[in-house]
Design a protein that fits this description.
The chain is an alpha/beta fold. The protein is 38% helix and 17% strand. The protein is built from ten helices and eight strands. The longest helix is centred in the middle third of the chain and has 16 residues. The two termini are 30 Å apart.
């Protein structure tokens, strides 16, 4: 498996060394390039495919300090420059789509495929706001000497499942990342964009996909009925077929 050093971080990735246009695969939070390998295998015959473990995931090194989504996107640009990739096609799931959105709003991008894309600030219920208020009060209480040893247990109790599953620099990164609202960038994406969404996605609800379709100038939305945040994985053959049609004009010999 190839690896490269970017700013002293060792990054592991797959590459097929095809001579065609480059497709870059960006996995979701808590995942790795393994989740994108069925897409990689499907595209290997017609494209140069780069499938990487983002810093802090899979076999790649942890960032030295907490990164927000803009730091991750800056890393992506440096990584692609280092392996001589420009004007890429980006296929991204969930957290990876945050990077793709920022990248495409700032750098020349051939096409985007976003599935279960994160990046839009969620609508919060009254229960959520009550939980946040309670958490803030609990933080003060648990700073009292004798109780401060229970601070980590308190954070785990109030945190999301993603938050509870991580620690250290990645937990701090997660907090920075989920609080970034990328909605203002959507109108700055000029490349053709394919959105693929699970109808019953509860992590990035369908209304987010519909808003992205509305805000991105050249976007189309495909809905996988009765499916969830991992609709692309659950219906991989269908996902690959739709992507194949969308990318047909970009295959070697068709450009």
């Amino acid at each position: 498996m190839p690896q490269i050093s970017i700013n002293e971080l060792t990054i592991h990735y797959n590459e097929n060394h095809h001579t065609g246009r480059c497709v870059v695969l960006l996995h979701g939070w808590g995942q790795s390039k393994e989740m994108m390998e069925p897409i990689e295998q499907q595209l290997n015959h017609d494209f140069r495919v780069i499938n990487l473990d983002l810093p802090g995931f899979g076999a790649s090194d942890l960032p030295f300090k907490p990164w927000g989504v803009y730091e991750y996107t800056a890393f992506l640009k440096e990584f692609l420059d280092a392996i001589n990739v420009d004007d890429p096609i980006l296929i991204a799931h969930s957290f990876g789509a945050r990077l793709a959105i920022i990248f495409a709003s700032r750098h020349t991008t051939r096409k985007l495929v976003l599935t279960g894309a994160a990046g839009i600030k969620p609508k919060r219920s009254m229960g959520y706001h009550l939980r946040v208020r309670t958490y803030k009060m609990a933080k003060v209480v648990f700073m009292i000497p004798g109780l401060n040893k229970h601070q980590e247990s308190m954070r785990r109790f109030f945190g999301s499942s993603d938050y509870r599953a991580i620690s250290g620099v990645m937990r701090q990164s997660f907090v920075k990342i989920v609080n970034e609202d990328l909605t203002p960038l959507l109108s700055q994406i000029t490349c053709p964009t394919l959105l693929i969404w699970g109808e019953k996605d509860d992590a990035t609800p369908l209304w987010m996909g519909k808003l992205m379709e509305k805000k991105i100038p050249d976007a189309g939305l495909v809905i996988f009925e009765d499916d969830d945040h991992y609709a692309y994985w659950n219906q991989m053959a269908r996902f690959n077929k739709i992507c194949g049609v969308f990318l047909n004009d970009d295959k070697e010999g068709m450009q």
